[in-house]
Design goal:
3 helices; LIM domain; Znf_LIM; two-stranded antiparallel ribbon; metal-binding; alpha+beta; 6 strands; metal ion binding; 114 residues; two-stranded antiparallel sheet
Amino acid sequence: MDNRNGSEDKPVQRSKSFSFKTQKEVCSSCDKAVYPMERLVANNLIFHSTCFCCKHCNTKLSLGTYAALSGEFYCKPHYQQLFKSKGNYDEGFGRKQHKELWTAKEGEDMTKTA
């Protein structure tokens, strides 16, 4: 019997640093597993490239064609149409304008100094 490599006596040892147990990434839009070939990251959120769409018109977006505001993603034309035309991004979402907060703060400062 030729026993040059001794494979019968010693079990095969695998590297402990390599593991098949990897944490699956999940799409922020559809909550399904995202594989490396279809993975897209925008604003630290992971998407399938097919799930990364404009909130307003559902057009497929890419990293060069999107604009984000308050965690929502839009194509650039709709972003400008919905928010930039008003001149105030907060007003587009129904929030108080920042200038109202400033005038309230200035009024408080005047009562403190008087």
